[in-house]
Amino acid sequence: MHLRTFEVGPYQNFTYLVAESVGGEAVVIDPSFGIEPVLRAIDEDRAKVRLVLNTHSHPDHVAGNAEVQDRTGAKIVAHRSAPLRQDRSVDDGDLVEAGRLRVRVLATPGHTPDSVLYLFEGHVATGDTLFVGDCGRTDLPGGDPSAMFDSLLGRVIALEDGLVVLPGHNYGRTPTSTIGREKAENPVLRPRTREEFVRYLRE
Q1: Spatial CA neighbour of 85 closest among 52, 108, 120
Q2: pTM of the full predicted structure?
Q3: Share of the chain above pLDDT 90, in %
Q4: What sign does the dihedral 140-146-147-152 (CA atoms) show?
Q5: Which of 60, 85, 127, 180 is 20 to 30 A away from residue 78, measured at CA?
Q6: Domain that holds residue 12
Q7: What are the angstrom distances between the C-alpha of 125 and each of 70, 106, 196, 202?
């Protein structure tokens, strides 16, 4: 696997270019504003981008969709409930493929109703569900702290410790982490009741 990470746009967004190999079939995860460095890398690597994978529908995670699609012909993939144009709608447990890349979808509502994680080859792209040391906001339209409790302390906590976390923003003390490290260090993954968790987020 060939993975490249780009911090783009005004909000410290991470966009990821993931290919089976240099010159192989590929996906782009969360193309943000200022997508030009990613487009150049697609050309440099001769990447055959088949899919654009959106972790959720906020503008800073989908702003580059059209440019990547226009350049590569890739299909836009998002959760079926996402309020954006999509060529392939996915739901929890679905599998999408680009060449030898196999990407599993895990639904994690809370930051938005359409938030998902993408799991592939020892990595998990977490969008704004899980940051390094924190989680995404739940006080924006569509946010739901109770749903975030279920996603983080029901689903994320059950993931394998060795998975490398690829967050949606460069907001932590390091650009990446692991699920195991986040379980040990991230306060949003500490054991709490639903009521305690909701109160923690609101405070």
Answers
A1: 52
A2: 0.97
A3: 100
A4: positive
A5: 180
A6: 2-202
A7: 24, 10, 27, 25
Distance CA 16, CA 9 (A): 13
Task: State the average pLDDT over residues 14-18.
Answer: 98
Distance CA 137, CA 148 (A): 9
Question: How many domains does the chain divide into?
Answer: 1
The pLDDT confidence band at residue 203, using thresholds 50, 70 and 90, is: confident
The amino acid occupying position 127 is G
Q: Is the dihedral of CA 56, 59, 63, 66 positive or negative?
A: positive
Q: Which are the contacts of 194, defined by CB distance < 8 A and separation ≥ 6?
A: 146, 149
**Residue 85, both tokens:** 């144009």
Q: How far is CA 123 from CA 103, 133, 176, in A?
A: 10, 17, 10
CATH number for position 57:
3.60.15.10
